[in-house]
Design brief:
Elements: E1 8-13, E2 16-22, H1 24-27, E3 37-40, E4 43-44, E5 47-48, H2 51-66, E6 75-80, H3 86-98, E7 103-108, H4 109-116, E8 127-132, E9 137-143, E10 146-153, H5 157-172, E11 174-175, H6 178-188, E12 201-208, E13 214-220, H7 221-227, H8 229-244, H9 248-257, E14 259-262, H10 271-279, E15 283-285, H11 292-302, E16 311-312
Parallel strand pairs: 6-7, 8-14, 14-15
Antiparallel strand pairs: 1-2, 1-3, 4-5, 7-16, 8-9, 9-10, 11-12, 12-13
């Protein structure tokens, strides 16, 4: 019903912060605001970095979905990274309660991703899901409705954007913004270099670090793959480490069923080939990977009796 980025534009006026825009409108302001306005991300690495702004953001989304407050106190399920601490989970829950939620549940992101991807999580069979989000990559082995082993890596789409921006700065002495780096990743990003990588090109604009003037350069897919090599290696190593710590019976199941990739990062071309090469296990990208987590969360909310074991409370 709503698909918007977790960005909030805040004006600092007379020692008070006032929310000006949320979501798509606020994202357009990233890197383009005057001094008294900040376009900020209240969530970092999957957890709350700014409690007050996160609460305002949740209020905005509730109002947008429920239209004039027909349901003033909804039940809410919010995803949290598997590695989130009890304090971080409590902060998320309190933000939702402060935004007007009647009841708040948490669900771990890899479990939500597995439900959304249609994996047989309740069967006595091992499944592994790798959810590559903005702030984190969650790797989880699931069986009988529970997580047998999981790890949370602080590597995701945001880290890839930073790596691309740093690469362009290092190679071309060109400073580009967060939005430009994300656009490069989406348009010509790739996990490995192919024969045609040099032919896939994109013009990018930014500010020269040498003379401060506007500058335009051309970037090809091979260079983007070079920029992303560390992030891709970290994700693949995380998957391999998870398999090494998985009970042998479940590993046998995983060899048969393969690894499922979800999240926006799963859309990076050839990432499945890299993970398959390093782990020796077949890898598939879930149908509609970008929305697997939210679809799984929705199913958990609609079927609370059936999925009660996967919903968490912090108290």
């Amino acid at each position: 019903m709503v698909n918007e980025p977790s960005v909030v534009a805040v004006a600092n006026l007379n020692s008070k912060r006032e929310v000006l825009a949320v979501g798509n409108e606020a994202k357009l302001m990233l890197g383009r605001t005057p001094g008294y306005i900040q376009a900020i991300r209240p969530l970092r690495d999957g957890v709350i970095a700014d409690f007050e702004v996160a609460e305002e953001m949740i209020k905005y989304f509730i109002r947008k979905v429920h239209n004039r407050g027909i349901f003033t106190s909804p039940r809410i399920v919010i995803c949290v990274p598997f590695g989130a601490t009890a304090v971080e989970r409590r902060a998320i829950q309190e933000s939702a309660e402060g935004a007007g939620a009647r009841e708040v549940y948490l669900i771990e992101e890899p479990m939500a991703a597995a439900i959304g991807a249609g994996l047989p999580i309740t069967e006595p069979r091992g499944s592994i899901v790798v959810d590559i989000g903005g702030g984190t990559t969650e790797v989880a082995v699931i069986s009988l409705g529970g997580i047998v082993f999981a790890s949370s890596l602080r590597v995701g789409g945001d880290r890839m954007d930073d790596d691309i921006a740093n690469y362009v700065r290092k190679i071309y002495n060109l400073l580009i913004g967060e939005s430009t780096a994300e656009k490069i990743k989406k348009e010509i990003g790739g996990a490995i270099c192919t024969n045609s990588s040099k032919d896939v090109k994109m013009s990018i604009k930014g500010r020269s670090l040498l003379d401060g003037n506007p500058k335009e350069v051309e970037l090809n897919q091979k260079q983007v793959a070079e920029a992303l090599v560390d992030a891709v290696a970290a994700i693949a190593s995380g998957v391999k480490a998870a398999l090494e710590k998985t009970p042998p019976e479940l590993v046998a199941d995983i060899v048969e069923t393969g690894i499922t990739l979800t999240g926006g990062g799963a859309l990076l071309p050839n990432l499945d080939d890299v993970i398959s090469h390093i782990t020796g296990v077949s890898v598939k990208v879930a149908e509609n990977p970008l929305n697997c987590v939210v679809l799984g969360t929705g199913k958990a909310l609609m079927e609370t009796k059936r999925n009660g074991s996967v919903l968490l409370k912090t108290y």
